[in-house]
UniProtKB/TrEMBL annotation:
Organism: Phaeodactylum tricornutum (strain CCAP 1055/1)
Coiled coil stretches, renumbered: none
Alphabetically ordered keywords of this record: Signal
Keyword Signal: yes
Top-level taxon of the source organism: Eukaryota
Protein name, UniProt field: Phosphoglycerate mutase
SMART domains: PGAM
GO CC, any one term: cytoplasm
InterPro entries hit by this protein: His_Pase_superF_clade-1, His_PPase_superfam, PGM_Phosphatase
Cross-referenced Pfam families: His_Phos_1 (PF00300)
N-terminal signal peptide: 1-23
Hydrolase listed as a keyword: no
Molecular function as annotated in GO: phosphatase activity
Amino acid sequence: MRQRRLRSQVWVAPFLALAPTATKPNVAAFSRGSSLPTSTLQAQKSTDIVFVRHGCTYMNEYLGQGPSFGAPYFTDVFRDAPARDRYHDTPLSERGWRQVRQLQTDQPDFVHDVDLVVVSPLRRALQTFHLGLSEWVGQQSPALASARTHPSTPRRHVPIIAHPAAAERLYLVSDVGRPVSLLRQDYPYIDFDTHFTDDPQWWWRHNPVGDGPYQEWRPTGQGQAYACWSEPQHAFDARMHHLYAFLRTQVAGGKYRTIAVVCHHGVIDWMLGQNFDNCQWRRVPWQEIQPAALSIPTTTVRNAPK
């Protein structure tokens, strides 16, 4: 949600509590100068990552109507049920649906090459993949397959993995995800097992024992009101390190040549340092992905994703 971005902040998202103890990412292992086998280096040079940002959401539109994020009397507290459904784990708006339908119609060239899809578990990213890209790649149930728009077009069956580290920062209530049990029901063809537990509250939660008293970093003092606590910067940085390490492992294995990551503005900004519009995508050679934040040591974070 680029409209709400502060220039001094880096955008991120919620993550699942998966491990009983914290693990500190091995930053040195991510560095450009790491010593790697020749076969690994060759695999990295021949693998592309395709970043796809989700379509426009109701929260995107809300943030563009004012008051803008951080302005006096800004709030993401919505009391009536229809508004909560629009803004809690915010889905695609009508404009967003049009964007992803156009993405599906355009049939981006990378869909002919992609052999692994990594998708954020937030509703807007899942909807973007489901309507915009699943026509061309991935495993689907017979019912979904029979409803395809282009049934005569060959489909490539590739793994579709939901990964909590690819979600947007828990910044507002729009970034609070849903229980994985519900996600499995809505998207039975997506892998929600490899990187998730059945914890009904999988998004980031402040831990007063390990993290100390919660410190609000969002603008306050002028009537702003927020529906949830936000994910701190150090948790975002650690989680993005995990996502980077996960992608690097897939690349180093040499099995995949084109990996699509359907995610969010903040994730893409961290990885590439670039702004993406809704439904924009870009293919990037793996060796060109060198996030500046990788050189910044991260603090130990409890419940880091595996």
